[in-house]
Amino acid sequence: MKHLLSATDLSRDTAISLLDIAEEMAEVSQREVKKLPTLRGKTVLNLFFEDSTRTRVSFEAAAKRLSADVLNVAAKGSSVSKGESLKDTVQTLAAIGVDAVVLRHPASGAAHTLAHSGWIDAAVLNGGDGTHEHPTQALQDAFTLRHRIHGSASRGAALDGVRVVIVGDVLHSRVARSNVWLLRTLGAEVTLVAPPTLMPHDIDSWPVTRCFDLDQALATEPDAVMMLRVQRERMNDSYFPNEREYSRLWGLTVERFARLGERTTIMHPGPMNRGFEIASLAADSTQSVILDQVQNGVAVRMAALYVLLTGSGASAIGALKREELR
Ligand code: CP
Fold first, then answer.
1. Residue closest to 5 by CA, chosen among 121, 74, 101
2. pLDDT digits 0-9 by tens, 134-184
3. Is the minimum distance from the CB of 137 to ligand 1 under 6 angstroms?
């Protein structure tokens, strides 16, 4: 595997292997010295053309825990704001010497373009491209869910038969798209719930059940409910009457949360609009794994950087990694 651009790049075996490597990495993160020498001498460039807290910082932590050097470049404050192109920006930074580029960009397909343009010879990791994909978010969500379901027996496990309801602004959500593909690859059953205006137009070709009634979807007592952020910054139109109406119909309100079974796991990729798509009571409950998702983001990004930068096949790497960590 040279790049990680899309959740569709991951076969079931590759995904499970990456999650297993992430298990090893999570153990490293529990140690007093949270560091491995594995990527010493490598340089990871975090190139962010959109704002980020979780993805940028967790990629930085992941690279540093593997002893790589990290360069952080945000569009704001760089020559991108003077009009420098993506090509000139990455070629300039590559001239300094980089082995991997983590790219977040508002244009869907930007990571794919960078990986296949021939502009640079570095591994490309998609840190979120427009409304298209966010594969490492899907990996951290699958890792978190796998732990919630299988606990200490997570290694080697998939998510067969696990029922996940994804709710909200699906139309603009790269998180939803990547999650759908990875969850399906791992055997989960996915239901998407959204207002008709925020359901993708090509939804019939997605491997999901769609539903327009949140209460009906929650009454099935799913294993997990993943609430999505309403992405106002991507909306150039009115997709719902007002916030109150959205919360009433599509929000995980206090009342809905109270009706939900205790075994249903609450997820959200963050950042959250508290009191809008999710009530604080639900977000801060013991059923919520929202902070676990963030914590596990470091482990899965360590795994992804490890696999891409050591050039090892994901299928062979689990055993190799376990040996190295002993
Ligand atoms: N979930 C996520 O991508 O968060 P950030 O935008 O903070 O990276």
1. 101
2. 999 999 999 999 999 999 999 999 999 999 999 999 999 999 999 999 999
3. yes
Cα-to-centroid distance, 139 and ligand 1 (Å): 13
By alpha-carbon position, which residue is closest to atom 4 of ligand 1? 54
- Bridge-based pairing state of the strands 224-227 and 163-167: parallel
User: pTM here?
Assistant: 0.95
- State whether the beta carbon of 58 lies less than 6 angstroms from ligand 1: no
Q: Which helix (H) or strand (E) holds 44?
A: strand 43-48
Alpha carbons 318 and 19: distance in angstroms, whole number: 9
CA-closest candidate to residue 38, choices 291, 325, 300, 259? 325
Q: Which one of 46, 55, 177 would you pick to mutate in the ligand 1 pocket, going by the greatest count of ligand atoms within 8 A of its CB?
A: 55
Structural tokens at position 28: 């490293």
Provide the 3-class DSSP secondary structure of residue 45.
strand
Distance (Å, whole) CA 29 – CA 177: 29
